[in-house]
Design goal:
The protein is of the alpha+beta class and about 900 residues long. The strands form 16 sheets. Strands 1-30-57-56-55 form a five-stranded antiparallel sheet, with no helix packed on it. Helix 6 (about 710-805) runs antiparallel to helix 7 (about 810-825), helix 6 (about 710-805) packs antiparallel against helix 8 (about 830-840) and helix 11 crosses helix 12. The protein starts with a helix and ends with a helix.
């Protein structure tokens, strides 16, 4: 139920036409919060220094395009008027007038009336409401008196009647009375213009002229015109409206245009040449409808002083803006021209903008993506389907929803449409029948064609596809080109058809397709010039628009390359329809959609002269000279001041100290901090479309930190020198003492070392001798053990044999008993193992050395080596090794071969030397 009521309310809201929606010049509003002043702005003028000055009740305001300044009069009275002449800004107030001059970055006031007794007697309650120059004299006008400044003299003229204002026009000075009509001031006398008797009892707020005559703007009775000596009511449609309003001020902009400020309906700009009137008010662009004053700058743009705020209206800019402040229109996604205006597609539906009126097309509510004019009809790509609009009726022609792009086939009479679920082909202008290109059911947002049987398609999210089809649109092949080229990051691919060449921006790199190799190739030209962009939109065969860092650039190609023209950010700041920006060319004009409307401009090849760009440096709010010496670790503000405030204001860049980085200047201000010591140079540039051109520069010096000042450096040198001298003297004394102590210490150490060496050598000799003795003892012990064992066994055996000889007489038994005795007295196996273990253990070191030097020796070889080391003969070794004498000799021979020893070398000596 809630949803039903919401849609019903939306339908009722959209059903009404929104009136007074116009293409307007760009308006820049300044609130009293921004200039920190009062409400009413009674007077506006531009000084010779290009700054704009305002009479803002209690405040005198100055604005140079970068910085607002606020001042008060010494007596704090209300300021009603300002007027610029030469380097002075004249100012009128209550019982006071004088002038301001800029001195060292501040406005200084000088009173012209103080002490002159000009406001005495009946003149004690006068306010200077207007200041003007007439015949080289400055006039200060109140409602009852005129004060004329001629050199250093001031002359007062008493007006015999109450007036509204004086109006210098050509060589005449008109004085408009409140009740008695209009007079001319001639030779200090007031001469009534009798032929203007119609204007009696009428308050006149302005008199101005152009080639059509003299225009008299009354407060409540509209506008009169005197032409050829005849005064009549102005015959213009706007005059009927003005008669029901209050005219506060009016001025001719030039011979063909007129600005009229009202109390309740803002300002009207009448263009006689184009026979067009635009109304600029709170409903479309102003912050307040009560226009108290009108001023002009060097570009002849309007500055409006309002009852609450200030507005700058760029009436001479090539840019016009359509903004729907009501919120009915919504964000614009598509635009197409009609006979008297535009057809607009938004997220709210389809609208017709004609004759300054915005009209909703019934039943079109919802997201409109695309509008294409085909003959006298408009094909609408809508969220709910595809529709046709013929200026009177709106009907659905097919169910294909989300038609993002309609593409005319360059090779036959049909169309392709990219939509939410792929691509369809229309075989003719009958959009009710279509054929799907099968195999690709992804949301396709952009398509392009450069061959009769081939389409390129970009997914709304990622990937680039190449589709080949036959004449009846049957798909032959679909290739994911980014995948086949090994590009993994292919999100938000941009496709750009320029001069019959399709270019692709993939992951911040530009490619083109080589049909011979069937591969993507880097495009060096576009990669060099157009990287880091977020959008690119074709305009025609010579131009396209890019969006980079939130800024639009119009790119034009000529014989010399690409020319880049920045589209000033102020016309679209915060209003870009991201990823859905479109650029339309209608005649000479270009149109770009915005989230609350659109803006229109005609590219202009040249602007006004650059003029003089001034650089003002401020430190702690005070103006500084170029030879200023900035304290270390302090910041400085540079105001880059242009002579222009509107379209001709340049987008500027700067470099610090010849660095390569070119930085944009934001809002005309450069804040510099963390600067190094020494000379600092800031260079200011603008871009002429091809490269950066230097305009001016500004230099200042940054002082060294206090700890690097001349006196501190001198102190450091003196202090360091003293420390070094004292350190030298102290170090020299210590050095001599250390030398002496070192010598004594070395002597003592030598003595100790000698004693230690002697003791160590003695100990080593003792240990060596002990070790030799131990080895000898072990060797002798082994020899004794072996011989003892052998002797013991021999003795025991001899005793046994003797006993047998004494007892046994039988020879046969004797022989057997002797053999048994010999066998019994031979050394058993266990005794031999014990003997050998002791033998090896007593010669353990020798065996280690022998094994290391001759690792191929067997255990039997090592045993022979031990016996040889013990100086045993072959005859003595034979029973120990349980072999014959001949076996020992043979073993000795083989051992010589293994040890590679000549026959002349004694084996026992050789073993003892190992």
């Amino acid at each position: 139920m809630k949803k039903y009521f919401f849609h019903s309310f939306l339908f009722l809201l959209l059903s009404y036409s929104v009136k007074s929606q116009q293409l307007l010049p760009f308006v820049e509003n300044f609130t009293k919060t921004e200039y920190n002043g009062d409400n009413q702005v009674w007077s506006v003028c531009q000084g010779n220094d290009n700054a704009i000055y305002f009479a803002n009740n209690h405040y005198f305001l100055r604005y140079n395009g970068v910085k607002w300044e606020k001042y008060t009069l010494p007596n704090k009275t209300i300021i009603r008027s300002v007027f610029a002449d030469s380097d002075k800004i004249y100012c009128g107030s209550y019982n006071e007038f004088g002038y301001w001059k800029r001195v060292h970055g501040e406005m200084k006031y000088t009173s012209l009336s103080k002490g002159k007794k000009l406001f005495t007697g009946a003149s004690n309650n006068e306010e200077i409401w207007k200041i003007f120059k007439f015949k080289n004299q400055i006039y200060f006008q109140s409602f009852n008196e005129i004060f004329i400044l001629n050199g250093n003299k001031i002359e007062k003229i008493k007006i015999p009647f109450q007036i509204s204002y004086c109006f210098p026009l050509k060589e005449k000075l008109y004085v408009a009375s409140v009740t008695n009509g209009v007079y001319l001031l001639e030779n200090k006398k007031f001469v009534k213009i009798n032929k203007w008797i119609t204007l009696e009892n009428t308050i006149i707020h302005s008199i101005d002229s152009n080639s059509d005559g003299t225009f008299i703007f009354t407060k409540k009775n509209g506008v009169y015109v005197e032409k050829n000596g005849v005064l009549s009511t102005w015959n213009h449609p706007i005059n009927t409206i003005l008669k029901s309003e209050l005219i506060i001020t009016a001025r001719f902009i030039d011979k063909d245009r007129l600005a009229i400020g009202t109390a309740f309906k803002g300002v009207y700009v009448v263009d006689f040449k184009k026979n067009k009137t635009i109304s600029i008010n709170r409903n479309n662009s102003l912050k307040n409808n009560s226009i108290l004053s009108i001023g002009f700058d060097k570009e002849n743009d309007l500055w409006l002083g309002m009852d609450n705020g200030i507005a700058h209206v760029e009436i001479n800019s090539p840019f016009s803006v359509f903004s729907d402040n009501s919120g009915v229109l919504g964000s614009v996604y598509a635009i197409s021209p009609t006979k008297n205006g535009y057809l607009l597609g938004s997220n709210h539906g389809l609208f017709v903008y004609e004759n300054n009126s915005l009209r909703f097309i019934e039943n079109s509510q919802g997201q409109v993506w695309d509008i294409n004019k085909i003959d006298n009809n408009y094909l609408i790509g809508h969220n709910d389907g595809t529709f046709l609009f013929d200026n009177t009726s709106y009907r659905k022609v097919n169910p294909i929803n989300g038609g993002w792009q309609l593409l005319k086939n360059n090779f036959s009479n049909n169309y392709f449409m990219a939509h939410y679920a792929g691509i369809i082909a229309y075989s003719s202008d009958d959009f009710s029948s279509f054929k799907r290109l099968e195999g690709l059911t992804k949301p396709i947002k952009t398509i392009a064609q450069n061959k009769a049987d081939e389409l390129w398609a970009v997914d709304n999210y990622k990937s680039l596809y190449k589709i080949n089809f036959n004449p009846d649109f049957k798909v032959k092949r679909i290739e994911n080109v980014t995948k086949s080229n090994g590009i993994s990051n292919d999100y938000e691919v941009k496709m750009f058809n320029y001069k019959n060449q399709i270019l692709f921006l993939i992951h911040n790199s530009w490619y083109n397709y080589n049909s011979l190799t069937n591969k993507l190739e880097i495009n060096s030209v576009f990669n060099k010039l157009f990287k880091d962009i977020s959008q690119i939109i074709a305009v025609n065969n010579e131009q396209f628009v890019i969006l980079k860092n939130g800024l639009f650039y119009l790119i034009t190609q000529d014989d010399n390359g690409f020319i880049s023209e920045l589209i000033p950010e102020k016309y679209y700041k915060g209003k870009i329809v991201n990823q859905d920006t479109k650029v339309y060319q209608f005649g000479k004009e270009l149109i770009i959609n915005l989230d609350d409307g659109f803006f229109v401009f005609e590219p202009i090849k040249s602007k006004l002269n650059i003029g003089v760009i001034k650089v003002e440096g401020f430190y702690q709010g005070k103006l500084i000279d170029e030879d200023f010496n900035l304290e270390h670790n302090q910041s400085i503000d540079l105001n880059i001041i242009s002579p222009y405030y509107g379209y001709n204001e340049l987008t500027l860049f700067y470099k610090l100290n010849n660095t390569d980085e070119m930085l944009p200047i934001s809002n005309g201000n450069i804040n510099l901090n963390n600067l190094t010591s020494g000379n600092q140079q800031v260079e200011i540039f603008y871009n002429n479309g091809n490269d950066f051109k230097k305009i001016t520069s500004y230099e200042f010096n940054v002082a060294r930190p206090w700890y690097f000042s001349f006196w501190m450096i001198s102190f450091y040198i003196l202090f360091s020198s003293t420390l070094l001298f004292l350190y030298y003297k102290w170090n020299k004394i210590r050095y001599l003492e250390k030398i002496k102590l070192k010598e004594e210490e070395l002597k003592h150490q030598r003595e100790i070392l000698q004693l230690e060496l002697d003791a160590e050598n003695k100990l080593k000799i003792q240990e060596y001798e002990k070790h030799i003795l131990e080895i000898q003892v072990q060797t002798k012990a082994s020899e004794v053990a072996g011989k003892s064992l052998s002797i013991a066994k021999q003795t025991e055996m001899i005793e046994g044999i003797q006993n047998l000889l004494e007892k046994e007489n039988d020879i046969s038994n004797l022989k057997n008993n002797i053999r048994k005795t010999i066998k019994m007295n031979s050394i058993n196996k266990k005794e031999w193992e014990t003997f050998e273990n002791n033998l090896f253990k007593s010669h353990e070191d020798f065996i280690k050395r022998l094994s290391i030097k001759y690792p191929a020796l067997t255990s039997k070889d090592k045993k022979l080596c031990i016996y040889l080391k013990m100086n045993l003969t072959s005859k003595e070794i034979a029973p120990l090794m349980n072999i014959s004498y001949r076996g020992v000799e043979l073993h000795r021979y083989r051992l010589r071969k293994k040890l590679n020893i000549d026959q002349e070398i004694n084996l026992s000596s050789f073993m003892n030397n190992i």
